[in-house]
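Batch manifest, entry 17 of 40.
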Amino acid sequence: MKEAIMMDNPEKLLNLLSEDARLTTAQLAAMTGATEDEVVSAVRAFEKNNTILGYKTIVDWDKTAREFVTALIEVKITPQKGMGFDEIARQIYSHHQVESVYLMSGGFDLTVIINGRSMREVARFVSEQLAPMENVLSTGTHFILKRYKDHGVEFDPSDKDKREVMMSW
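Output type: structure tokens
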């Protein structure tokens, strides 16, 4: 019975997993009121039907030796007849540099998030791969300078501004 209740209201289990995918089945069972077997069965069903698409660790790369930049690229496109934005989005996200692609409302159509080893590498991707695409009308590239919060996780919440206040008389 509890499995049916969990499947009728999957948001509780999915919310818990989206907040911390490291929770054990025992912890999830205790938090949802289900048995461990019901949790395992529900998670397998969510993975099978692509409700759960993957598990990801959020890393503060600034605390490592890895050097790279992240850019958000605004893209204006002409939708393809009969396909809308989907086929163009597929063509864009097929590039290995592309982290995410979102359809947007407002002044542009897609937001493309990419990672590169340098600003030059990102610029090369935009100028050689993205901008020349047949249906791309224009692009606007913005580089992330510092992450404060990403996917609900604060980056260095205890790292306060250490600049001194300068008084001007």
